[in-house]
Structures are given as C-alpha cells and as structure tokens.
Specification:
Blueprint: E1 25-32, H1 40-52, E2 57-62, H2 68-80, H3 86-105, H4 110-133, H5 138-145, H6 147-162, E3 167-170, E4 177-181, E5 184-187, H7 189-202, E6 207-211, E7 214-217, E8 222-224, H8 230-240, E9 243-250, E10 271-273, H9 274-282, H10 294-297, E11 303-307, E12 316-319, E13 331-344, H11 354-364, E14 369-374, E15 380-386, H12 387-400, H13 402-407, E16 412-425, H14 435-445, E17 450-455, E18 461-467, H15 468-481, E19 487-494, H16 498-518, E20 520-528, E21 533-535, H17 542-551, H18 558-565, E22 572-577, H19 582-585, H20 588-593, E23 597-599, H21 604-607, H22 610-623, E24 627-628, H23 639-648, E25 653-659, H24 662-670, H25 677-686, H26 695-698, H27 701-713, E26 723-725, H28 738-744, H29 749-761, E27 765-773, E28 778-785, E29 798-805, E30 813-818, H30 822-839
Parallel strand pairs: 1-2, 1-9, 2-6, 3-6, 4-7, 9-11, 10-12, 19-20, 19-22, 22-23, 23-24, 26-28
Antiparallel strand pairs: 4-5, 7-8, 11-12, 13-15, 13-16, 14-15, 16-18, 17-18, 20-21, 25-27, 25-29, 27-28, 29-30
Helix pairs in contact: 1-3, 1-6, 2-3, 2-4, 2-5, 3-4, 3-6, 11-12, 14-15, 16-17, 16-30, 24-25
Bound molecules: adenosine-5'-diphosphate (ADP), aspartic acid and magnesium ion.
Magnesium ion (MG) is lined by residues 33, 228, 231.
Length: 844
C-alpha cells in the first residue's frame, strides 16, 4: 500500500487536472446536498442555477437525493434482520427514483430509466443475499449506503445533457482512493490524482458531475467518507481540479449562528475563518462535514455555503481570515448523545503519566474523546465521549486501571450518560475577557447546571457539558446572551381585569419595538383567570387575548399554567399576576423556587402572612428568580425602587409618610365643607375612582397593606395586624350591604364635618395619611396638615410618599404623582418586567 498523505495534504502538481496552466483556477467546484436534490423539480432548479453561473468550468459534486442514504441503510438493516417489510421499502425507494427520472427527463428518460431499473435489480439481489445470510458485513453496508449518490449523479447528468450541454459523469469510486487514518479518512492524493488524470484524458467536458460521499479503499473496494461526507468530496474534488472556489449548496442561507431547528432566531454569518468553521463543524454544526476544509485549507480556496433555494443570497464565505465581528462569539453548537467518564482517586495526585494512560486506553479501544478536563488538584480526570461508545470506554478504562482500582487508589471509573456538549466558537474570543463569564451567567440564569468545562488554548472555543434535557434551553440562553438573537422570555399573565387588559395592550404596542431596538423577545404564552386559561402563543395579538380567554373552556389550573409558561425550550419564564387573589399569591414561592420570575401589582403576597412573605423571599434568593411588585404601591410611581436604592446605598430610614390612596386623596382634596362627605363618596364612585364597594377604600385596609409592603421592603417584619388603622367606615355600617351602605352614609356626615371644622380652626386641612417610623410603628388614619405641607397640595388622585432618612433628613425625598388607574398600574408592572429582562441580559 502506498504511504498516504495526511488530511491536510493536497494534490501534487502532476495530478492537476484543470488543463494547461493558463486555465488554472477557472474551475469552480459546486457541491449539492440531498435537500437540494430532493426530487425532479429540485434537480431542475440545480440545472438552472448551474447554467446561470456561466463562464466557469464546473465540477459538480452531488449527494444522494434527500433521505436516500438513510433509506438505504435502513433497508440493509431490515434485510439483514429479515424484516418482512423490506421489499415494500425497497419498491418505494426504486419508485421514487423512477418517478423523478420520468418527471425530469420526459421522452429522454428511456436510457436513464433502463439504467436505474438495472441498478435497482442489482440492489434487490444484494438485499436478498443479505436476507439469506441474516447479516450485512461492513463492505456490503458501505457499498449499499453509497448507491444513492450514483443514482442522483446519473439523474443530474442526464438532465444537464438533455440541455445539450457537454457533461461528463464521474463515479468517484473510479478515482478517489482513501485510507483509514488516526484522524479519520485520508486521501491518497497521488493515486487519486493519477487516476483522475487518466480519466480526464477520455473525458474533457467543461462540466463534470461527480458522486459525493463514495470512494474506493486501497484494495479497490467501495467505501464511504462518513455521514455528510459529500461535503468532504466537494473539497477533495475542488482541490483536485484546482478550483478557485468551492460552493456548498444547501437548504439554509449559509452557516447560521446556531442550528436553526433549535434556535429559530439564528442568523446567517457572512464570513468565517477556516478555524471557526472547523470548530463549528467538529462540534456538531451539521451544515458542513468536519473534514471538509482540510483539502482546501492548504491551498487557500474560499468555501461558500449557499442556499439553493435562495441563490441570490451571498451565504457564508469561509476563508483564511474572516472579517472580525462585533461579538466575540460567532456561533454556538450543540452535540447531543454524549457521556462523561470520570476517573477519580487520590492515587492520581502528582503522578505523572495518568492522563496519558487514560488516553492511551481510549485510543486503543478506538474511542474518540470529544472533551477533556482535569481539575488542578489532579484528583480526577474527566472525558466526554460519544454515548454510543461510552460503555466500551468505561470498560477500557476499568481494565487499564484494574490494579489501582483493586488497591483502592482509584475509587471508581464512573459513567454519566444523557449529556450534550454546548460549544461557543469565535476567533474574537481570543484575548477578550468576560466571554466565559457571559456564557456561564447566561446558563446560570437559565438554570442550567454545567457538568464539565473546557476551553482550548486557542481560545476559539469554550465547551461545556450539560444535561441533554437542559440543552435546548441552554443553547437559546447562550445564543441570546451573546446578542446573536434577542433575549427570549416566556410570559404568562394572570387576571382578566382592567390592569391585565391595559398591560396586554401596552405589551402589544411595545413588543415589536423591543424586539427591534432592545433585542428583547417577549412572548405572551398564556393567560388565565380564576375560571379559565388559554395556553398558547398569544403573540402580537395580546390585545385579543382577553376575548380568547372569555371563550376558553379550559379550566384554570395554576400548576399546569406555570408548567406551560416555564417551557424547556425558552430560557426564561415570568408570571405576571394581575389578579388580586390570595390563592394565586400562595403559589409564588413554588414558582420562584422553580426559577420562574414573578411580577405583580397584587398586594396579597407583600402584605399577607409574614411567614409566606419570607418563604417567597427565600425562594427567590435561593433560585435567583426575581420577585418584583413595584405597582403594589403608588401604581407606576417608582416608590419601592426608590426605597430599595436608599437602603442598598447604605442610607438609614427614619420614617415613611404618605398619602397612598388615590381615592382618599381625591376625597380629601375635595372635602372643604361646601358639600357633604357622603356626596363626594357617591361622585367618586360614579367617576370610577373607588372600588365597587367604597368601604374597601374608606376602611383604610388597602393603605395599611401598602404600608406593610414598604415596611417589609425596609427590613421591618411588620404584619397587617400591627398597623393601627383608623377606618372611615362608621361602625354601624360595617356589616351593611353595599347598597345600604351608600344609602346610609349620610349618617356619618355630621361627624366628618366636625373633624373638618376642628382642623380648620387650627388653620389645617384633613388628609388620610400613612406613617411608619424606624422601629416599625405603623399607622394609617386622618391627620391634620398645615397649608404649606406637601400633603395639603396634592392634585386629583395624586399619591405622595416621603422618605426621611439619614441623608434626606432636613428635606425628605418625595415621590409624587398619579398613583391609581389601570394604565399607570400596568405601566408599573411593565417597568418591572423590563427590569427583570435587563437583569437577564436584554440590552435596555
Ligand atoms: P445538505 O443536505 O445540503 O447536506 P444538511 O442537512 O447536511 O444539508 O445540512 C444543512 C442543515 O444543517 C440545515 O438545514 C440546518 O438544519 C442544519 N444545521 C445545523 N446547524 C447549523 C448551522 N449552525 N448553520 C446552518 N445550518 C445548520
Ligand atoms: N448522502 C450522504 C449522507 O446522507 C452524504 C451527504 O449527504 O453528504 O450522509
Ligand atoms: Mg450535508
């Protein structure tokens, strides 16, 4: 056997086939994948495309029609397994080819038809023999697997010839000689070159159609280049013909920033370096075969990945050095069905040669290692291998370390399956700090546990091993974190009242803008109220969602709702509770514990039982999921955020005072004695400023709840029972129906007037005020304030909150403005949602 050159080799000068020196480089190599050749109309499209690329000589490497290689493999296995279904599958495959042939060639189909019939008769005979033997040897498997390329090449060639073009058809097995090397298939360039030169003496057409994927071995037997191997064939023939470029035609717009089936937002990459493309291919970007680049690399032949179905799109250009991109990471890949082997034991510490023994054992067992990590303590060596080879790998290591295992110097060779390797690739990663941090931050936010990490010395690739069930979520989270796609957030909204409706409206308006300007992709994927739910992508029609909820017959189940929102394939989930329900609030801790962020204007959690509030906080601290409720106090006003900022920056709270109820603010702004208080209440009710039962406002409970929320935010463990509340509902009317209450409210007017009179005599006005001191003493009730006081000068339904702190002692920090109404409340909720999004990495 001849000595084979390494993969990086290239054809010798004498193997050049482009003709004279003057012709060098005017060949262009084109490779068409199975998806580009799926049926007659696809083949016709390819023909047109080649014709339009006039002025070049073309070496055209083809794959089998889409799915044919899989079908041939399955056929061989089922014949070997004597599965009675194989003849039917065989007929189907033959008919598919005959149909394509007739459709494509019409009257001119006869010759190709006869050829196909003969080929399939031979295949049938082979399958019958295999069925008799009950086993298919490697040679038979490789031979049969490669037939699809012969069929498709014949069809394309005949089609091009029917256009009266001069085309030659080359069965690669006639010329391409390969061997088995340590790093995979190696090309015997010398033999191949001279065989091809000989063939070209008889075949000098300016177009040559070549079968991809197949070759012959040194003994002359048919063999294959590995799955997806026709990309490799394309590169080999590009090198042999000294083509100026290699165009790999497929069904996507080039190499994308991630597998588009897993990340639909993936974007095509205009350019890549050979190194980047190589890393991507090796780590599972199925769009090109890992060895594709080796034959063209040495000769600097640009490789273009292009879309047969969108030929005007420039696609991806792969060259020695690519345009640097703004982002350090260009693309991400995912390799599934991996397993992790761990060799662990004190005996390895400081003992030279342990790693070598590990890899030697794996090499001898012919197992390729995808990833290696060793902690600097040298306590363990971990390698990631393909799951299919993992049991064999474990046995090989157990055998290699048998003595140490027996002596207990190595505890175990453990195996974990069900893993995937996620890799981030980009030349720009080298020397850029923070890339790993961003990747791991994104994975942490998406609650993905990292099992092992590797970064190559080239810094072009960071790989992490993760559980396969987390893989898709991890990929999307990482993809978004490098701003390769928008940050995607799955949202569920609870409630069908005014706030929910306003929020949905605001979201509908903002979603396209956020997507465009802030790379934030908010997906409303569920809506429910106490009665029903809609579990669906509500998308841009969020405004209609309320209507859909009304019609929904699916009973609300909050657990099911949360599970739907918290889907595995989206990295982040947020539940927005716009209800006023205590029952909903009782789910927060579980949701937060599971990593679902919660945003709400519902006061139940913040002001409800202290132990529940503490559980919610603990769950949030533990999982990192955020709990935000700015809109519970002062609607859209930044009250809680201001308090947080004061405390977080080290200020010390002395007191909080304020008017927290828009309704009560409005009532006392108006109450000047000219009209009875009861009449003002009725007007407020008519204007929609009060709750349906105004006692809910007048009782002061709502104000007390807000005060509890602020107290807790300030770190004071206050409960609602500890707040001293002055109710404005006369005791005698507390138990009345709401109609009776409205009728009899005038009974309290006299007492109210007396209060007002007293205040006036002191030159003051009445306000319903909430107060908290630094010790947690909390009260809400009527207070007299002077005309200069900020509380005396509120407009309409304004809320006001005054923070007196060590820094703001003489002159308190004031937050004031409209503090009620669905629109401003929804805006407060929306602002919380955006804050959570920003914390998750959105560019806001
Ligand atoms: P062909 O039949 O043309 O050889 P393949 O199916 O082998 O096509 O490869 C193209 C497919 O690779 C695309 O349709 C896409 O689904 C998948 N793919 C996986 N990762 C990537 C990626 N990063 N960029 C582009 N395509 C990818
Ligand atoms: N037809 C072969 C396969 O399916 C080769 C290729 O398409 O590249 O793997
Ligand atoms: Mg392919």
């Amino acid at each position: 056997m001849q000595v084979l050159e390494s993969n990086a080799g290239h054809p010798r000068a004498e193997a050049r086939l482009g003709g004279s020196d003057a012709d060098r480089g005017d060949w262009i190599a084109h490779k068409f994948g199975g998806s580009s050749l799926a049926d007659a109309s696809c083949v016709r499209r390819v023909g047109r495309l080649l014709e339009q690329l006039s002025g070049q000589r073309q070496v055209i490497v083809v794959s089998a029609m889409g799915g044919v290689t899989d079908a041939l493999l399955a056929l061989t296995h089922s014949a070997a397994g004597r599965d009675p279904g194989w003849p039917a599958a065989f007929s189907q495959l033959r008919d598919r080819h005959l149909r394509a042939c007739n459709e494509l060639l019409a009257e001119a189909a006869e010759e190709s038809n006869a050829w196909l019939v003969l080929q399939f008769a031979q295949l049938e005979a082979m399958l019958q023999a295999i069925a008799v033997l009950g086993v298919a040897g490697r040679e038979a498997l490789e031979h049969i697997q490669g037939l699809g390329e012969c069929y498709s090449a014949q069809l394309l060639c005949a089609h091009l010839r029917s256009g009266e073009q001069s085309v030659d058809c080359l069965d690669a097995r006639e010329v391409l000689v390969v061997g088995d090397g340590d790093l995979g298939v190696t090309v015997d360039w010398e033999q191949t070159g001279s065989r091809l030169a000989e063939w070209r003496l008889q075949h000098d057409a300016p177009r040559v159609v070549v079968t991809g994927f197949i070759a012959r071995d040194a003994a002359g037997r048919p063999t294959i280049l590995g799955r997806n191997g026709s990309d490799f064939s394309g590169a080999i023939f590009a090198a042999l013909f000294e083509a100026g470029e290699l165009h790999i035609w497929t069904d996507v717009d080039g190499i994308l920033s991630a597998d588009p089936r897993l990340v639909p937002e993936a974007v095509p990459l205009p350019s890549l370096s050979y190194h980047e493309a190589f890393e991507l291919a090796y780590f599972g970007a199925r769009v090109i075969h890992p060895q594709t680049l080796t034959p063209v690399l040495a000769r600097n032949v640009p490789v273009l990945i292009r879309n047969t179905f969108n030929p005007d799109f420039p696609g991806t250009r792969i060259t020695a050095d690519s345009r640097p991109s703004a982002a350090p990471v260009k693309a991400l890949t995912l390799c599934a069905q991996m397993a992790m082997l761990n060799v662990e034991g004190a005996a390895m510490i400081g003992v030279p040669g342990t790693a070598q023994r590990v890899f030697d054992a794996l090499r001898r067992a012919d197992i390729s290692v995808v990833m290696i990590t060793q902690g600097s303590s040298e306590q363990s060596i971990c390698c990631i291998v393909r799951e299919a080879e993992s049991a064999r790998a474990q046995s090989a290591l157990q055998a290699a370390f048998e003595p140490e295992l027996q002596r207990g110097q190595i505890q175990a060779v453990t195996l974990a399956t069900g893993l995937s390797v996620l890799a981030a690739v980009g030349d720009g990663m080298a020397g850029t700090p923070g890339v790993a941090a961003r990747l791991f931050g994104a994975l942490a936010h998406a609650r993905v546990n990292v099992r092992a990490i590797a970064q190559g010395g080239s810094e072009r690739n960071i790989s992490v091993a993760i559980e396969s069930r987390d893989a898709e979520r991890a990929l999307r989270a990482a993809h978004a974190s490098f701003w390769l796609s928008p940050q995607t957030i799955s949202i569920g909204v609870i409630g069908s009242g005014k706030v929910a409706a306003a929020l949905l409206g605001q979201l509908t308006d903002a979603i396209p803008r956020l997507r465009r300007d802030s790379r934030l992709d908010l997906r409303i994927r569920g809506l429910c109220n106490s009665r029903a739910m809609v579990l669906d992508a509500l998308g841009a029609n969020a405004g209609d969602a309320v209507g859909r909820l009304r019609e929904s017959t699916l009973a609300c189940d909050l657990e099911q709702f949360a599970a739907h929102v918290h889907t595995d394939h989206l990295p982040h989930a947020i539940i927005i509770d716009c209800s006023a329900s205590d029952e909903v609030a009782s789910h927060y801790a579980t949701w937060l514990g599971n990593g679902i962020h919660v945003v709400t204007p519902n006061k139940q959690a913040g002001a409800g039982p202290l132990h529940r509030y503490q559980e919610i906080r603990e769950a949030s601290d533990h999982s990192g999921a955020r709990f935000r409720y700015e809109a519970t106090v002062g609607a859209g006003l930044p009250v809680i955020q201001t308090l947080r900022d004061l405390i977080d920056t080290g200020d010390v709270l002395q007191s909080i005072e304020g008017v927290f109820s828009g309704t009560l603010a409005w009532l006392f702004n108006r109450f000047d004695g000219s009209r009875p208080f009861s009449e003002l209440v009725r007007e407020a009710l008519d204007l929609g400023y009060t709750e349906p039962d105004p006692r809910d406002d007048l009782s002061g409970t709502d104000v007390a709840r807000k005060l509890v929320i602020l107290a807790r935010e300030a770190g004071l463990p206050v409960s609602i029972g500890e707040v001293e509340v002055e109710s404005l509902v006369p005791e005698a009317l507390a138990g009345a129906t709401s109609a009776q209450f409205m009728q009899r409210l005038a009974e309290a007017d006299a007492a109210m007037n007396a209060r007002l009179e007293r205040a006036r005599r002191n030159g003051q006005v009445l306000r319903y005020v909430a107060r908290l001191d630094s010790q947690g003493a909390a009260s809400v009730g009527l207070a007299e304030v002077g005309p200069e006081h900020a509380f005396a000068n509120l407009r309409l339904t304004d809320n006001i909150v005054q923070f007196t702190t060590r820094r703001y002692s003489g002159n308190p920090l004031v937050v004031q403005g409209p503090g009620a109404g669905p629109d401003v409340t929804a805006a407060g909720v929306f602002a919380d949602l955006l804050r959570v999004s920003a914390a998750l990495g959105a560019r806001l």
